[in-house]
Amino acid sequence: MPADNKEEAFDLIYEENCGRIYNVLLSMTRDEAVAKDAFQETFVKVWHKMDTYDAEKGSVYNWIKTIARNTAVDMFRSGLYRSLPEFKPLGEEYLDLVTYDREYTGIIKVTDRLKPEHRIIIEMMYYRGRTLVEIANFLQVPLGTIKTRLTEARKVLRQILKKEH
């Protein structure tokens, strides 16, 4: 494949799949830094393996998703992402980190209880900063449906939080 065609094909593949692949990796790793590393490594592999893609075996998205999952698994097996380096912060910084970690973990546990179609909207809007229009376009769902699901998700979150506090 000529270099120009390969670059154009890669750009198209990347644009059409980057959001969904990142979300797959983030849901697998539950860590933005690890997900970003795996994401970058995945698309480097996609670039190098583009000539091996076989449309008869499945969609481009499924091919990339397989590469992404294998990349994330390999990263965890390597041991680089199993533990963080020893870190002993002092004073208020430490308390802020502990408080943030507890709050973030609690938020993840609560959002994990939502239906998948509600959780993805909450995650995209609040964790990724996406607008409702962007979410509707990404999920290929009407904007009105996104608004309804967001309202339902917020209602469920309020109920969960009332029960726990």
Description of the structure:
InterPro entries: RNA_pol_sigma-70-like (IPR039425), RNA_pol_sigma-70_dom (IPR014284), RNA_pol_sigma70_r2 (IPR007627), RNA_pol_sigma70_r4 (IPR007630), RNA_pol_sigma_r2 (IPR013325), RNA_pol_sigma_r3/r4-like (IPR013324), WH-like_DNA-bd_sf (IPR036388). This is RNA polymerase sigma-70 factor, ECF subfamily. One of its GO terms (biological process) is DNA-templated transcription initiation. The radius of gyration is 19 Å and the shape is globular. About 75% of the residues lie in helices and about 0% in strands. The chain has 2 domains: about 5-75, Rna Polymerase Sigma Factor, Chain: A; about 90-165, Winged helix-like DNA-binding domain superfamily/Winged helix DNA-binding domain (Arc Repressor Mutant, subunit A, Orthogonal Bundle). The protein is built from 7 helices and no strands. The chain is mostly helical.
Quote the average pLDDT.
79
CATH homologous superfamily placement of the largest domain: RNA polymerase sigma factor, region 2, helix turn helix motif
Strand percent estimate: under 5%
**Extended strand count:** 0
- Name the CATH class of the largest domain: Mainly Alpha
Shape estimate: globular
Fraction of residues in H or I helices: over 70%
Family: Belongs to the sigma-70 factor family. ECF subfamily.
Keywords: DNA-binding, Sigma factor, Transcription, Transcription regulation
Protein name: RNA polymerase sigma-70 factor, ECF subfamily
Organism: Chitinophaga jiangningensis
